[in-house]
Amino acid sequence: IKRLRSLMFPGYFEEKNFEYRDAQYFAGNTLNSIRRELRQQVEIALLYTNESRTREQIAQEADETAQYFIGRLADIQNMLLKDVQAGFDGDPAAKSRQEIISSYPGVFAIFVYRMAHELYIRQVPFIPRIMSEYAHSRTGIDINPGAVIGEYFFIDHGTGVVIGETTQIGDNVKLYQGVTLGGTGKEHGKRHPTIGNNVMISAGAKVLGSFTIGDN
Q1: pLDDT on residue 50
Q2: Which of 33, 85, 98, 178 would be 160's cystine partner, CB 3.0–4.6 Å?
């Protein structure tokens, strides 16, 4: 997560001074290390949950997953930049985009979610949920990696926000603190809400069950 954060937002989170003339080397070196370490971790996770396949088959799947993930990073970065812009546009207290990237818990939670969601799609066990719980422990925002969230998404303040596994959220949606997009415990399959485009859900709202809040 730390390496991915420095890659998605270059110049903000490196462990040593960053020179933009070194950007190409930095990006290539970071991508290589992420791919290598992710492949190893995915293989370990798959070994715990697959008893019918050979070690070679699992190693191949882990390699393919790591390649897929690296191939998605440019699109994820574009989504994250739109999320940052949504934060800047949606919070009159924000002084700059740099402040949002560096200090807003909602942006950190969304960043981790967008990474974890890609691994969830690939049905990688353990790792997506571990990532989301890491963000949860740091921010108080609990986004299940299975949720589907559109562009230009912003969580303001954020403490106590919960977004369940089968939640679907459209574009240009803003949530405030204490919002729960949850289930009733009585449904199966699609258990959580669907939120349309251009929706604001204000502080403390509890939206429970598999019904839809429409656009606008």
Answers
A1: 79
A2: 178
